[in-house]
């Protein structure tokens, strides 16, 4: 089988090959971003497939949209690592890769010769990224579910109404943040390997990513011992900063400095509030929230949220309506951001949310729909066999990236 090269190298990671042994969200989100940027991603799934294939509702033609959201531009193969032949195939895939990404439980890959020590010895030029829930020491036996991390990181303690229960986020946000951190680490390691020719092991865990992602809240404790509490929709350091009722529904207003506050109250018809010593500074507004809030709400009641949105925006005052998901996507489209892209072509195409990065010279691509389980088995096995026959070099950090073939798209519905 002759594997065609791409007509022209596309994407900043064109030629990079990634062995993706991840499932659920953090790892697949990371590898999808890299695939969008041109990397060839071989998604290795167990006989039952990625768990998220079964996470329904919602679905598109019976396929979980959870799975569709993080698995475009990938090639799916099914391997049972307990089977010697399949394990050998898995090793061949890793042998052909620049990057090996996995989110097995700590110690789970040792018996397959794919643990960090074995990988470093056998493939010293490979970049190996491991994702866990709570690290490899005291938390090594803890399952890595995002909601557990939302609870244990402190996130839920600062989310929700002051007099209500702790609240989870409406998305598995720390899985997503960890996926972003993993992609960033891989990019850094690829850059370093271009100089040294050496691979390395990257370790990431959801809890560390959560504590980093909580930025000012966690640093407030680390730097001065402050323990934040739930403030509902209020900001701990800025005011007014959150949703406020208007004549019909809430409007988000985000005032970040004293000048913005002066323009806000002037536009609302209560300019004297900017001269009141209780409200003239951010420190003062934070200290007198309970006094200031009803004054702002009374002024905002004179018009609807949409009317205030138009009026305040015209004055350069940051504000926004609270939209549903469908409205948010439609609004982004009206702004010219074109958030929905078709991945794949023809009857294979699946609408997905676009990669948020725009490159001026090497754009991301959406060539391959999220694959059905094992859809690319034959193509990947043939590709490996051709590499074996040709004596293709292992990943050494210095090979000709442009010469790396693409696995052809398999026309199997995703």
TrEMBL record:
Residues 384-414 are annotated as: Disordered. Keywords: Transferase. Signal peptide: none annotated. The keyword Ribonucleoprotein does not apply. This is CaiB/BaiF CoA-transferase family protein. Pfam families: CoA_transf_3 (PF02515). It comes from Kocuria gwangalliensis. Residues 384-403 have a biased composition (Basic and acidic residues).
